[in-house]
Write a structure and sequence with these properties.
Helix content: 40-55%
Strand content: 15-25%
CATH class: Alpha Beta
CATH superfamily: Flavodoxin domain
Oligomer: single chain
Order of helices and strands: EHEHHEHEHEEHH
Distance between the termini: 17 Å
CATH topology: Rossmann fold
Largest sheet: 6 strands, parallel
Bound molecules: flavin mononucleotide
Length: about 190
Amino acid sequence: MSARAQIGIIVGSTRPVRVGRPVADEIATLVGTAGGDAVMLDLAEIRLPLLDEALPPASGVRTQPHTIAWAEQIEALDGVIFVTPDYNSGYPAALKNAIDYLKTEWSAMPALVVSYGWAGGASAAAQLTSVLSYIGLQVQGDGVQMPFQPTDFDESMQLIDAAAFVGRSAEALAAAVAQVVEVSAHELVSA
Ligand SMILES: Cc1cc2nc3c(=O)[nH]c(=O)nc-3n(C[C@H](O)[C@H](O)[C@H](O)COP(=O)(O)O)c2cc1C
């Protein structure tokens, strides 16, 4: 049996009540449909402290147990999907922190950026894509931007139906997820 590509889904938001995790759960299902194995990497659960390594990540030196564990989780992946909200026209600090912990572990990894917000999280996606490209990830296509509608939320601003919200972008999302799974699986075979 051929190995299935391991696709990390990094949940970039860490608030106690958030859109990010249910959206990421929907994306995990699409990864499975595309023939990959979804590996949920929820930054709210991983709880990395603010970067506390003495040497820059490019040194390759990893000393803190949480850095070593994070590096091992990323190294085990064949591809990665970043799920990010738009916070003040950018992506969340927790996500930047998680990215900054590592360097070579990200190198050449196929990546997809999925964003959401009132304008589809376009600003966050642009920022994140720029940073990921700088680090050397292979960012696939233009990503998928999922715009909110006011009726997506109840009176306490909780997303009412994650599947319906994701469903509005189903076609673009399925195509983009399939692409990142395919590229990741191809590199797995050629490695
Ligand atoms: C700190 C903060 C800043 C925000 N700034 C923006 C913004 O610039 N653009 C936008 O469309 N939505 C913005 N929002 C609304 C978010 O899109 C919305 O709260 C979304 O649910 C956040 O994702 P999360 O629930 O996964 O944290 C902001 C929300 C927070 C918490």
